[in-house]
Structures are given as structure tokens and as C-alpha cells.
Design goal:
Layout lengths: L4 H24 L8 E5 L5 H9 L4 E4 L2 H14 L14 E4 L8 H5 L4 E5 L2 H9 L6 E6 L16 H9 L4 E7 L12 H13 L4 E3 L6 H6 L4 E4 L1 H4 L5
Parallel strand pairs: 1-2, 1-8, 2-3, 3-4, 4-5, 5-6, 6-7
Length: 240
């Protein structure tokens, strides 16, 4: 599939707008814009969309499903070897796993992703340990900050236990915390949740915070997010 010129232009334009909004949020919080990584969420979009966003300046991409991500990486390796890890020249794209990690997918995921953003249980950590990784595995621990039954992640008072387990596994590096606040009509309603995630991270001396999506990333940045995961605001509505 070849993307229409209008689609290519739309992605480039939206990406620029998101970066401007990120910079403005950083300015309000007196932060360096370089301290926030934009992860473009490309789940369900074709590999060519990744290539178009890469050509527009995006370097970090978020995927929710291991097999889908591996298929895209394979397609890019064939068609655009310059932008994938281990490719020929250029600055490689970095892929982040941002979904629920199934134990039987861990082995394949470790070699494909820059970081795993959704480690939410000891069983997931045990699966990583069982692979006996030979290179650094960077992870975020997912915290269910609002104690929602519909969301994954450990409860705030369980973060310490999951962190201690992670620290026992050789070559696993806990970067920080990942969270998704409750759906809200107004982004400002998410501020209290983002602030709580930051406080928990500070308490455990964790440096990075993966929080904030299309509807609330500016508030997340103001409250300390270091990684924002943005799909719709860049790529538009997805079909699935």
C-alpha cells in the first residue's frame, strides 16, 4: 500500500503541531523540551506509516502487540533498512512495547524493543528472568494509579514489591513508572493522577515517567512525564 500524498502531509503537519504543543507545555513547566520523548503510537497502522513519520522526524514508535510489531520491522528491514535497528546508516527507529506483555511473547519482544512500558506483574518479570537476557532490558512498571478494575497494573502500595523483584533480575533496568489515568472529559482532571505517579516515582528514586496520551499529554508533561504516547493526534483515527 502506498500512502496518498494528502495522508503523508497530514501526518507531517500533525506531528509538527504535537511538537509545538509539547514545547509549550515544557515552557510552562520550565523544562527542557529535550527531556520529553515523543512515542508515536502506530499500532494497527501499516509499516509505511512508520516510514512516513520517520521521514517527518519521529524516531520513537509504540506498538501494543508483539507479533504486529515484528511483522512491521520485517517489512521495514526489506523496504527501508536504513531506519530499523541494525540498519545501514542513519539514526535507527526505536520501538517501544506499550501493551500488556504476555509471558509467551517475552522472548521475541526482548530483542525488538527499546523499552517495555507495561510490565504489570511478577509473572511478567518471571518470564523475562526465564529468558536469561544477555543484554540490558529496559522496563517501566505499570501502576494502576486510580485503582480501576478495568485496568492492569499494580496498585500504588504494591510498586515497591514489584520494583524489588525487578531489581533481582540480572540485566533488567527499571527506568520508571507507566500509568494511564481514568478517562476524563477534561485533561485537567488527569493532573491529580499524573502528580501521584510522579510522587511515587520520586519516592522510589525512579527517573522516568511514561504517561500522557493524545487527550492529556500537555498536562502530563507539566507534571513530569518523560515519555508521552501519542497516536490519534499524529496519525488520526485508527480503523481497529
Amino acid at each position: 500500500m502506498t500512502l496518498a500524498p494528502s495522508r503523508i502531509d497530514a501526518i507531517s503537519s500533525r506531528l509538527g503541531q504535537v511538537r509545538e504543543r509539547m514545547a509549550a507545555a515544557c515552557a510552562r513547566a520550565r523544562r527542557d523540551p529535550g527531556s520529553v520523548t515523543l512515542v508515536g503510537v502506530t499500532k494497527t497502522f501499516e509499516a509505511e506509516t512508520v516510514a512516513v513519520a520517520y521521514d517527518a522526524g519521529l524516531r520513537d514508535f509504540g506498538e501494543n502487540y508483539v507479533q504486529e510489531a515484528l511483522e512491521k520491522i520485517t517489512q521495514l528491514r526489506r523496504g527501508r533498512p536504513d531506519i530499523i535497528p541494525g540498519g545501514e546508516g542513519g539514526q535507527a527507529a526505536r520501538f517501544h512495547f506499550i501493551g500488556h506483555m504476555q509471558s509467551n511473547k517475552v522472548k521475541n519482544a526482548l530483542n525488538a524493543f527499546e523499552a517495555l512500558h507495561g510490565i504489570d506483574s511478577e509473572s511478567a518479570l518471571d518470564a523475562i528472568a526465564a529468558t536469561a537476557p544477555t543484554h540490558p532490558v529496559r522496563i517501566f512498571l505499570q501502576v494502576n494509579i486510580a485503582r480501576e478494575a478495568s485496568k492492569r497494573g499494580v496498585l500504588p502500595d504494591e510498586v515497591r514489591g514489584l520494583l524489588l523483584r525487578a531489581q533481582q533480575i540480572p540485566r533488567v533496568e527499571v527506568l520508571g513508572l507507566m500509568a494511564i489515568p481514568p478517562r476524563a472529559a477534561n485533561a485537567e482532571e488527569s493532573r491529580v493522577h499524573f502528580r501521584r505517579v510522579r510522587d511515587i516515582a520520586d519516592r522510589h528514586r525512579l527517573k522516568y515517567l511514561s504517561m500522557g496520551m493524545s487527550d492529556d499529554f500537555e498536562v502530563a508533561i507539566e507534571e513530569g512525564a518523560t515519555h508521552v504516547r501519542i497516536g490519534r493526534a499524529i496519525f488520526g483515527e485508527r480503523s481497529a
